[in-house]
Amino acid sequence: MPFIIEAETTSKTDSGKRNAVADGNRSLNIVTEVDGEETLPSPSKYYQKYNVGEDQNWVVKLASKISNNDLDWITTLERENGLWDMYRLHPNQNRDGSWDYSCGLNSYYHWPMIEKIIARTVSEKEILEYCYEVYNKRHGAFYGYYKRHLATHLFYLTN
After folding, report:
1. The pTM of the whole model exceeds 0.85
2. What is the mean pLDDT of residues 48-62?
3. Which of 131, 156, 155 is nearest to 145 (CA)?
4. Which are the contacts of 67, defined by CB distance < 8 A and separation ≥ 6?
5. What is d(CA 79, CA 151) in angstroms, rounded to the nearest whole number?
6. How many folded domains does the chain comprise?
7. Structural domain of 130
8. Domain check: are 24 and 66 in the same one?
9. CA nearest to 89, candidates 102, 106, 80
């Protein structure tokens, strides 16, 4: 059963509360509330991809922050969408007639989110958060999860 630890912040720039949620199965995740809005912690280190532009590395960094530097998830995303374009339609249709979008979301199972992706009414951050939620429920929902080991050499942890 999860438990919550609350602590008041003392930083002049961060005048909210920090909640640390932990359970026996996952690492400690800290959520900061500033002016009534939740924000993710900014780890001092995050993953970046070698030899790509800042447009792709911006999304890699965002995924790194959302997942608290979960390299398995980042490499799963790489195997699903190596371009790191969260509005991308994958070029090949699936055998069952469905299509994959963004991080590998299947059109049969995630149509409400895919409609938002197609219309571009959802941000890259919201897409990544949704994808990470799906990933945490069932890693095997992503084909890229089974091929993630092929992508670990493409990333480095910043200093």
Report:
1. no
2. 96
3. 131
4. 73, 74, 132
5. 7
6. 2
7. 45-157
8. no
9. 102
Instruction: Give the pLDDT confidence of 110-129 residue by residue, as tens digits.
Output: 999 999 999 999 999 999 99
The two three-digit tokens of residue 46, written as one number: 């995050």
Same domain, 24 and 91: no
Q: How many CA atoms lie within 13 A of 23 on its CB side?
A: 4
Residue 34 has pLDDT above 90, yes or no: no
First to last CA, the chain: 35
For 80-90, what is each residue's pLDDT tens digit? 999 999 999 99
Residue type, 50: Y
Mark whether 23 and 84 lie in a shared domain. no
Question: Residue 7: CB partners within 8 Å, gap ≥ 6?
Answer: 17, 18, 20
- Sequence length of the chain is 159
